[in-house]
């Protein structure tokens, strides 16, 4: 049977192609920014030591570009240690609930210069707008700021929070790229990568693309088993430790 395309007249083919080109071209003209990732999946295996994610995109008009990578929300518990009778002990504990487990920003300029305070507040951009503030029922004033600063220091030191550590590079007038580093202890889960096109501190367009960080292979199976069958996993670990110790004891006796 002759394919439908070959059965069309030259005029019909031309009309069809013009319609397709118009359909493809028109939406792109209305989009101020286009983005994509080098990979939408980061696979964590036994030898995982960190990874880099390449983001690339284009803008169709002058302006600034801001990229925000946000990991799944998690709870964090902080401890304050003090010397009591010469011994360091935990004297206070604070729990931060449902805050990003990973947060990184890259921009074509300092965050405070390319995004207005209103834009940052409305879109949850920056450490001051991602839910790190403690309720007054837990802590207030200077005490609350001390807990928040301690949490930020720990997350920054671990590499799970990165502020303007990545550079956005333009490849010509419209194309740009940037890289984000994921540490070896990067949390697993679903991430969102939001890219904003700004002008005079205001967002004129934005795109969000997903990123998944997941354990695969034997490590994933062990991780799932440990979390879903905690009792059996604990017993199995104790048995392995006892057997290993007994075999080591036999080896030394023979030696």
TrEMBL record:
Ordered alphabetically, the record's keywords are: Membrane, Transmembrane, Transmembrane helix
Q: Which residues cross the membrane?
A: 232-252
Name the domain of life: Bacteria
Transmembrane helix found in the keyword field:
yes
Which Pfam families does the record cross-reference, listed alphabetically?
Alph_Pro_TM (PF09608)
Q: Which InterPro entries does the entry link to? A: CHP02186-rel_TM
From the Swiss-Prot or TrEMBL record, give the protein name.
TIGR02186 family protein
Q: Which organism is it from?
A: Kiloniella laminariae
């Amino acid at each position: 049977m002759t394919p439908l395309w070959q059965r069309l007249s030259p005029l019909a083919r031309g009309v069809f192609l013009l319609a397709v080109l118009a359909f493809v071209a028109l939406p792109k003209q209305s989009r101020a920014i286009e983005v994509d990732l080098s990979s939408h999946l980061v696979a964590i295996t036994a030898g995982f030591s960190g990874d880099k994610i390449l983001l690339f995109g284009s803008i169709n008009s002058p302006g600034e570009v801001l990229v925000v990578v946000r990991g799944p929300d998690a709870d964090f518990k902080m401890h304050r240690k003090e010397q009591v009778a010469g011994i360091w002990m935990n004297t206070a504990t604070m729990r931060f609930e449902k805050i990003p487990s990973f947060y990184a920003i890259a921009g074509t300029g300092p965050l405070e210069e390319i995004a207005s305070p209103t834009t940052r507040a409305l879109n949850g951009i920056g450490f001051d707008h991602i839910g790190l503030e403690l309720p007054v029922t837990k802590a207030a004033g200077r005490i609350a700021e001390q807990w928040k600063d301690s949490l930020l220091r720990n997350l920054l030191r671990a590499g799970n929070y990165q502020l303007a550590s990545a550079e956005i590079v333009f490849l010509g007038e419209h194309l740009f790229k940037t890289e984000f580093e994921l540490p070896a202890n990067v949390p697993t889960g679903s991430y969102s990568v939001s890219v904003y096109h700004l002008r005079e501190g205001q967002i004129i367009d934005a795109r969000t693309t997903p990123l998944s960080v997941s354990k695969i292979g034997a490590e994933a199976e062990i991780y799932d088993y440990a979390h879903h069958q905690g009792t059996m996993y604990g017993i199995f670990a104790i048995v392995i430790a006892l057997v290993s110790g007994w075999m080591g004891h036999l080896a030394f006796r023979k030696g």
